[in-house]
Amino acid sequence: MSGSSMKHNLNKFDLNLLVAFDTLMTERGVTRAGRALGITQAAMSNTLRRLRELFDDPLFVKTGSSMEPTPRAIELSTPVALALEEVRKALNQEGFDPMMASENFRLGMIDYASAMLMPGLVRHMSQVAPRAKMQVVDVGGDEEVANLERGAVDLVFSRFQWVPPKVCINRLFSMEYVAVFCPNHPGVEGGSLSMDAFLASRHVHYYPRGMDNTVVDETLAEMGEKRNIIGKLASFGMLPAMLASSHVMAVMPEGAAKVVARPLGLRVEKLPFKTPLLRMALAWHPRTDRDPSHVWFRQQVKFVLKEACWRDESNCEDGIYH
């Protein structure tokens, strides 16, 4: 159907098709989309057929176990999602009651960010919004913005060295990188961590997706130095027990270090050299910018992070609360 025909027949247009399209963009599968909408696979397949006829485009192409959107579907995704969000807002004018809310808030972040945020957020949400749910999606690098644009996550907590286009961003705070190790680590039994002790130590290197080369190693390279890295981990969850049970050292953001060090009695020391700060931020898509439930949830995330990671106001970026 041409754009002209669609415009002339808008009074006959089935808005449920746009809901189905938006769900397909999120779920990337007919069965999963049908389940999310509460309809059968056959009914969802018929809906996809109607969408393809409507836009004269395949829209979604089978690739392995999922369906990938065509360029036309990607072009449609943002305006459709924004339009549906405005309709939902118009139909829901009662306001947002956290104690009665049953929303499922989806957060995108790498696992060291999860370690900083989730313990406190779970405790806090159980008190202020006991019926709400949360889902953590592991994202990194270019996936952060892509997941926001296609509606796979509602909010991303990550470092943002640049301001991504087409997203709203709230810069939060800056952190130093620190060294974490067991209390009886050889060469640093007392006092501060020296450069000689740092370089002599055996290091375990955590590298989340999209962050293989850390600013720490880049800074050392500029100084003509190099860490003795004896192991590389893609998962932050393995680090704490490894640090507590062996004489190895790890470098991590101080916010994550505070979370993992306290329960295991690990030492946290400043690095014996200066590195660029790690700047953390929240990012979300414009379609949820004014949604009452999402505005409220972002406020809760910032409250928990403030308590957990930067009680010192000097680390707070200007204009965090707005």
Write up this protein.
It holds the Pfam family LysR_substrate. This is Transcriptional regulator, LysR family. Belongs to the LysR transcriptional regulatory family. The chain has 322 residues and is α/β, with parallel strands linked by helices. It has three domains: 3-91, Winged helix-like DNA-binding domain superfamily/Winged helix DNA-binding domain (Arc Repressor Mutant, subunit A, Orthogonal Bundle), CATH 1.10.10; 104-174 and 278-315, D-Maltodextrin-Binding Protein, domain 2 (3-Layer(aba) Sandwich); 177-270, 3-Layer(aba) Sandwich (D-Maltodextrin-Binding Protein, domain 2). It contains twelve helices and twelve strands. The protein has helices at 3-8, 16-27, 30-37, 41-55, 71-91, 111-128, 143-149, 195-200, 215-222, 239-245, 254-264, 292-309; strands at 60-63, 66-69, 104-109, 133-138, 155-159, 168-175, 177-181, 202-206, 228-233, 250-253, 267-270, 278-284. The strands form four sheets. Strands 4-3-5-12-6 form a five-stranded mixed β-sheet, with helices on both faces. A three-stranded antiparallel β-sheet has the order 10-7-11. Helix 2 (16-27) crosses helix 4 (41-55) and helix 6 (111-128) packs across helix 12 (292-309). The longest helix is centred in the N-terminal third of the chain and has 21 residues, at 71-91. It is elongated and about 75 Å long. The two termini are 45 Å apart. Mean pLDDT is 85; it is low at 1-8 and 311-322.
